[in-house]
Amino acid sequence: MLIVAELSANHNHNLQIARDSIRAIADTGADAVKLQTYLPRSLTLDVRSDDFRLKGGLWDGRWLYDLYKEAYTPYEWHAELFELARECGLECFSTPFDLEAVDLLESLGNPIYKIASFEVMHLELIRYAARLGRPMVISTGVASDREIREAIDACREAGNDDVTLLKCTSAYPARIEDAHLSLIAEMRERYGVKVGLSDHSPGSLLPVMSVALGATMVEKHFILDRKIGGPDAAFSMDRDEFAAMVRDVRRAEAAMAPGDGIPADEYVTRAGRQWSRSLYVSAPIAAGEPFTRDNVACVRPGYSLHPRHLDALLGRLASRPYQPGDRIPAAELG
């Protein structure tokens, strides 16, 4: 099993904390460290309307743009962090959130492309990354069966068959009783790909259990010390907790050898769509003007038109005026 430490926002925009975190991750025995590669504009619009304010959960009341501004990893850090990880014996890879991010990561020799749960419907991004021929890892937390199949098909249409799905409960933190780990085997059978676990629950119980269910990868958020705070601190493991999880997972692997995977069913859990992508108006459009890439953006949240309709929408004439942040109704498709 590949054990991945997700650094995410747990650097608090302090490069030294990011460096120290990577060194600490290496000390835990993890196999890899994962970054997230985006700018706030990669994910959403800087719009103050109700759609763009988070409702409920850990970040209740926050504006999407402000949260991502706090959480992103500066692009100028990436080359140094990739090199440091390699020096520490870690595989370093990242989650891109737009095409620009893919280009940056490819220039750094990114070995794996991870697609976040809320990006599963961003088929243009998936195709763009998959065409590079690197392994693709796709979280499924908010995705429907159709969306998962579309994501896998996008990889295969790009000539890439190396796909791993991650069973994921997209809640922060997630409850153990919502994990539905017994369904991992069904995902493997249903979609014909490898399956792992992206876990936001407390402790290491679920990663250890996933070994017995045949998971090939586990991903947990890592933080140097929860006292530093930050958007992801509440559901991240510190150095000692992560090291204990690695030891327990390795013991579970030893107990399961050779190849005693337990067949089980899997349930694809769905959560709120506020973190997923949809098509929003990004620049003013007059009635009768066409929808174009200059005035339509595939961004979070997921309340507007599904990204699968992008090609059908582009070139159509708007039936009424629109302002940035407006949802695009299905009626515009004709």
Secondary structure layout:
Elements (H helix, E strand, L loop, with lengths): L1 E5 L8 H14 L3 E6 L2 H4 L20 H8 L6 H10 L3 E6 L2 H9 L5 E3 L7 H8 L5 E4 L5 H13 L5 E6 L15 H8 L2 E6 L5 H8 L4 E5 L17 H18 L21 E4 L14 E4 L10 H4 L21
Parallel strand pairs: 1-2, 1-8, 2-3, 4-5, 5-6, 6-7, 7-8
Antiparallel strand pairs: 9-10
Helix pairs in contact: 1-10, 6-7, 9-10
Structure, described:
The longest helix is centred in the C-terminal third of the chain and has 18 residues. The chain has eleven helices and ten strands. The strands form two sheets. Strands 3-2-1-8-7-6-5-4 form an eight-stranded parallel sheet. With 334 residues, the protein is an alpha/beta fold. About 4% of the residues have low confidence.
**Low-pLDDT sequence parts:** 259-270
Mean pLDDT: 92
SS strand fraction: 5-15%
Q: SSE string, helix = H, strand = E?
A: EHEHHHEHEHEHEHEHEHEEH
Tally of helical runs? 11
- Calculate Rg over CA atoms: 20 Å
Biggest sheet architecture: 8 strands, parallel
**Outline, from the CA principal axes?**
globular
Helix content: 25-40%
The secondary-structure class comes to: alpha/beta
Distance between the termini: 48 Å
Number of strands: 10
Main-sheet strand order equals 3-2-1-8-7-6-5-4
Question: Which properties best describe this structure?
Answer:
single chain; 334 residues; alpha/beta
Summarize the structure.
This protein has 334 residues and is of the alpha/beta class. It has helices spanning 15-28, 40-43, 64-71, 78-87, 99-107, 123-130, 145-157, 184-191, 205-212, 239-256, 310-313, and strands spanning 2-6, 32-37, 91-96, 113-115, 136-139, 163-168, 194-199, 217-221, 278-281, 296-299.
